Amino acid sequence: MNLTQLDGDFFVGFDKRGFTGGIKAYSHFSARSSLQVEILYTQKGANIPHGTVLLSTSKNDRMIDLNYVEIPILFKYMLQPELYKAYVEFGPVVSRLYNYKITENDPDTINDTVYSEVADDFNSLDLNLMGGIGLNYPKFDISFRYTFAVSKLYENPNEVRTNIFTNQPEEIEFLRNYHLGVALSFKIF
């Protein structure tokens, strides 16, 4: 399970729920450290209200659904294996966007960027950094992860103008993925 957001869309908050699933393999270096490689399917995106100012009457009627195949290569370190089952993990993640869906109700009333018009310019390859903490048990483990995209999903090729009244950009300058996740892993071998 994960919560995601897009930086650059003028709104904050992990407002898009998604699913992550896949397989992983370990290569143990010692009792405390290992290398972990995963192949994951991950849903990301954002739910965005109309306009650039969030009002109490705004509703999230603009949805960006992004589907990725990801390959995390993580270093996993057990904090004190003889006392605790806690660990930390961190490393790079290569993500490939293979499918997206943009839903914008009534795009004629949108004053800023219409995402369906720029979706064809989305970068299909993302480089991310992931960090997390977790608990390791004999048959399963549970982890809490944060992923930050180093590369941008979208970068506006035009010069972005600023609205003189609100001092806010009139269009998005870029989009970047952020991702919070909770993972439950069962050990088969």
Structural key phrases:
Porin, mainly beta, 1 helix, ten-stranded antiparallel beta sheet, 189 residues, 2% helix
Describe this structure in words.
There is one protein chain. The protein has one domain: Porin (Beta Barrel), CATH 2.40.160.20. Strand 3 and strand 4 form a beta hairpin. The chain contains one helix and ten strands. It has 189 residues and is mostly beta strands. The mean pLDDT is 85.
Outline of this structure?
With 189 residues, the protein is mostly beta strands. It has one helix at 115-118, and strands spanning 2-7, 16-18, 20-28, 33-48, 62-78, 86-104, 125-136, 140-149, 154-155, 174-186.
Question: CATH class, please?
Answer: Mainly Beta
Summarize the amount of helix as a percent range: under 10%
Quick one: how many beta strands? 10
CATH topology title: Porin
- Which regions are unreliable across 5 or more consecutive residues at pLDDT < 50? none
The rough form would be described as: elongated
Helix and strand topology:
Blueprint lengths: L1 E6 L8 E3 L1 E9 L4 E16 L13 E17 L7 E19 L10 H4 L6 E12 L3 E10 L4 E2 L18 E13 L3
Antiparallel strand pairs: 1-2, 1-10, 3-4, 4-5, 5-6, 6-7, 7-8, 8-10, 9-10
